[in-house]
Design goal:
This protein is of the alpha/beta class and 144 residues long. It has a single domain, classed as Cytidine Deaminase, domain 2 (3-Layer(aba) Sandwich), CATH 3.40.140. 24% of the residues lie in helices and 43% in strands. The protein is built from three helices and seven strands. A seven-stranded mixed beta barrel has the order 1-3-2-4-5-6-7. Helix 3 links the parallel strand 4 and strand 5. The longest helix is centred in the N-terminal third of the chain and has 14 residues.
Length: 144
């Protein structure tokens, strides 16, 4: 289990993005670094527009190649790394779906916020196993 550290402000940004895109999924990138083998420190949260076709956004998100490139360039500019993705689950639990597993990358952090009736309820952290068979839950530590 990895400890993922982020600030109250960063969590608020993630949850507010999920609320603002409700009843559709919202998403974005997590930039940061790994100061030790058990800790991931989030330094920047980058909300982006869901590029999925409008009629599918209620239960799917898509991040474009251009969005990935912008996130990578921003991370390089700041001397950190693209370390994960966040997204929301409107009116569903904050656990990964089969779709999430099929489109996830091992070693990335995935923060999923359950947004219930337009209000962020819970955010959990997940990491896809190397064999892609399932996600393991990471521990979120909110600082500040």
């Amino acid at each position: 289990m990895m400890i993922i550290r982020l600030t109250t402000e960063q969590l608020t940004t993630i949850e507010a993005h999920g609320e603002s895109t409700y009843p559709n999924e919202g998403a974005g990138f997590l930039l940061g670094h790994i100061p030790d083998p058990d800790t991931l420190l989030i330094e920047v949260v980058l909300p982006v527009e869901n590029k999925r076709e409008t009629e599918a956004q209620y239960n799917r998100y898509e991040l474009s190649q251009k969005d990935y490139l912008r996130a990578e360039l921003e991370a390089a500019k700041q001397g950190i790394d693209l370390v994960g993705v966040f997204h929301s689950h409107p009116d569903h639990p904050s656990s990964p779906s089969v779709f999430d597993r099929d489109h996830a990358l091992p070693h990335f952090a995935y923060l999923i916020t359950s947004v219930q009736a337009g209000k962020a309820a819970i955010t959990q952290a997940w990491r896809l196993r190397e064999g892609r068979e399932c996600f393991d839950e990471d521990r979120l530590v909110i600082v500040g």
